[in-house]
Amino acid sequence: MALIRTGVLAALIYAAYLVAFPDWGGKLYHEGVPIVIAAAVVGLAFLQKMLDLGEGALKIALEAAFLAVVALFLGYTLPQKSGKPPLTQWAEGERPRRDDARRGLERLHVDPDGFLGSKLAALFPK
Question: At 112, phi and psi to the nearest 5?
């Protein structure tokens, strides 16, 4: 269960970056990074089994630390047309807006005017 939970949460982090910062590019990046993240999720699951952490707080803390590393890794490596990665843009005061989210959803082939797309786009400020 932990393998699936961690994998899904890592995929959601990746999708959130793609929606919030829609000016991404780099075909090789988008082919390689999901494979690296998936391998790291499997490696984390094996580490947890080897350490026999059970279902305690240490296991959840290890998963949370891993997801934080994934978020930082993607935030500082996701290629953008501006040449600045997402977290650098964020630090400089450039925040994603609703129009950015709509463009990001379109790039992921999700209808921004559909039920799911409109709910996701509404999470961003105008």
Answer: -70, -15
pTM > 0.70: yes or no: yes
Domain count, the chain: 1
Q: Could you write out the three-class secondary structure of the chain?
A: CHHHHHHHHHHHHHHHHHHHCCCECCHHHHHHHHHHHHHHHHHHHHHHHHHCCCCCHHHHHHHHHHHHHHHHHHHHHCCECCCCCHHHHHHCCCCCCHHHHHHHHHHCCCCCCCHHHHHHHCCCCC
- Domain coverage including residue 45: 2-95
Share of the chain above pLDDT 70, in %: 97
